Automatic annotation (TrEMBL):
Keyword Amino-acid biosynthesis: yes
Cofactors named for this entry: pyridoxal 5'-phosphate
Entry's EC annotation: 4.2.3.1
Protein name as annotated: Threonine synthase
UniProt KW Lyase keyword: yes
Parts of the chain that traverse the membrane: none
NCBIfam families named in the record: thrC
Domain Threonine synthase N-terminal: start-end pairs: 2-80
Annotated Pfam families: PALP, THR4_C, Thr_synth_N
Domain Tryptophan synthase beta chain-like PALP span(s) in chain numbering: 87-332
GO molecular function: pyridoxal phosphate binding; threonine synthase activity
N6-(pyridoxal phosphate)lysine modified-residue sites: K112
Length: 473
């Protein structure tokens, strides 16, 4: 298995190098040269298997032999042993045709744990084998940060720097990150938005001298391995509901487009996915794209679903690569235009190709709160605000007949409601409690550094802290 960059001008890499590379050297994102194929029999054979075994079978073709199967099985099994539900990602039925796929049973209560618990262990395995050390730089709107910190804390070969937009995460999210006091963990509260944080991460990777001196790696979904690990739960959910003998639709609350791109990957591998509904909050650049074929930037506004307060959806580039027939130059031209002028458009044929798979819906603040309230009142199920965007978007797609009503609809429950207690209580009257292992979160000491939105300042901070950590190690 080889990986190519969406901009077409970076070296083709195997799995281990892709895991460590993060952003491609031409500024693009790595994708598989071709998708592994699962026949109907291969998919049927997954029925009844535990999550970790399905995970091994689905991910093994992506490794291209880089990690021995037994060693990989041990890593995967260990990663999912940290989840507090035996099914790892259980399905809960909400109504006759709608399920939620609970992805928040990992240590930091969001879907990011599913991939990052694995990634932390994969980094360890590969770095120990190579005798190397990396500096991870990451951007978070709230959930990737804590999941990555939890996965990388105290690992010997890793320093991790996580930037979050100051004052724009929930308090629980911030404390989950900043109360980890391990010497290899560095939290930055950036004076800016998530998009600014992500731009700085890409800026650090695109500075080749800095990237090479620091040995940069990524934990955001620019890292291919994140997508690979997220593909798995689309298989487990679809198989549990009757695939390959029945089609399944998914609705994904979306920000950076990584999670729904993983669903696209599962479909490309042969999973019978009928439709992928993208749920956006008021930061609705993706919903507007699917309505018009034009990607047009707009200022980010804070919402009740802060992890989705994103306007520049990094992984959309991976879809664009396919919409533009895998022409790296065309992707580069579109994204250069987006950077310079704030927009680009696809042709009607390319939009039609996208709409044969995707639908997009914007759910505003009132719709989010109303969905939390009515779901609680009607089913006794407490949604987090991100998942509520998904539930409302699924409903909108059904109302517009964009999905076949006979097809089961699975909405991805991307975070535990206790991560957003204020919004959930405001909507439902019920304040969700943190699980016992986080019950002292509000008393824990916090450590973080405030930095301006300036690449040179952030680079100097990362270099100085990483040097100090290495000297101390
Ligand atoms: C709770 C939650 N829901 C949804 C999303 C959106 O996922 P994606 O960025 O993969 O589109 C995020 C963050 O990205 C998140 O943290
Ligand atoms: N919502 C995310 C944003 C970053 O997304 P990623 O999937 O690229 O890591 C977060 O919680 O940080």
């Amino acid at each position: 298995m080889q990986y190519v960059s969406t901009r077409g001008a970076a070296p083709v890499l195997g799995f281990e190098d892709v895991l460590l590379a993060g952003l491609a050297r031409d500024g693009g994102l790595y994708v598989p040269q071709s998708w592994p194929q699962f026949s109907a029999d291969d998919i049927r054979a997954l029925r009844g298997l535990p999550y970790s075994e399905i995970a091994v079978r689905v991910m093994l073709p992506f490794l291209g032999g880089a990690i021995d199967e037994d060693a990989f099985r041990a890593i995967v099994t260990d990663a999912y042993a940290s989840f507090d539900h035996s099914a790892v990602t259980p399905l809960i039925q909400l109504d006759q045709t709608t399920w939620v796929l609970e992805l928040f049973h990992g240590p930091t209560l969001a879907f990011k744990d599913v991939a990052l618990q694995l990634l932390g262990r994969l980094f360890d395995h590969v770095l120990a084998k190579r005798g190397e050390r990396v500096t991870i730089v990451g951007a978070t709107s709230g959930d990737t940060g804590s999941a990555a910190i939890e996965a990388c804390r105290d690992r010997q070969n890793v320093d991790i720097f996580i930037m979050h937009p100051k004052g724009r995460t929930s308090e629980v999210q911030r404390r989950q990150m900043t109360s980890v006091l391990s010497s290899n963990v560095h939290n930055i509260a950036l004076d800016g938005t998530f998009d600014d944080c992500q731009d700085l991460v890409k800026g650090m990777f695109n500075d080749t001298a800095f990237r090479d001196t620091m040995g940069l790696s990524a934990v955001n979904s620019i890292n291919w391995a994140r997508i690979m690990a997220q593909i798995v739960y689309y298989f487990t959910a679809a198989v549990a509901l009757g695939a390959p003998d029945r089609k399944i639709a998914f609705t994904v609350p979306t920000g950076n487009f990584g999670n729904v791109y993983a669903a696209y990957g599962a479909r490309a591998m042969g999973l019978p996915i009928d439709k992928l509904v993208v749920g956006s909050n008021s930061n609705d650049i993706l919903a507007r794209f699917f309505a018009s074929g034009t990607m047009a930037a707009a200022p980010v506004v804070p919402t009740f679903s802060p992890s989705m307060d994103i306007q520049i959806s990094s992984n959309f580039e991976r879809l664009l690569f396919d919409l533009l027939d895998r022409d790296g130059d065309a992707v580069t031209a579109a994204l250069n235009r987006f950077r310079a002028e704030g927009n680009f458009a696809v042709t009607d044929a390319q939009l039609a190709k996208a709409l044969s798979i995707f639908a997009g819906h914007r759910v505003g603040e009132d719709g989010t709160m109303e969905t939390v309230a009515t779901t609680w009142a009607n089913s006794g199920y407490l949604l987090d605000p991100h998942t509520a965007v998904g539930v409302a978007a699924a409903k909108a797609a059904k109302a517009k007949a964009e999905v076949d009503p006979s097809v089961p609809m699975v909405v991805l429950a991307t975070a535990h409601p206790a991560k957003f207690p204020d919004a959930v209580e405001k909507a439902s009257g019920r304040r969700p409690a943190l699980p016992p292992r986080l019950s002292d979160l509000y008393e824990r000491e916090e450590r973080l550094s405030d930095l301006p939105n300036d690449l040179a300042t952030v680079q100097a901070f990362v270099a100085a802290r990483a040097r100090a950590a290495q000297e101390a190690a």
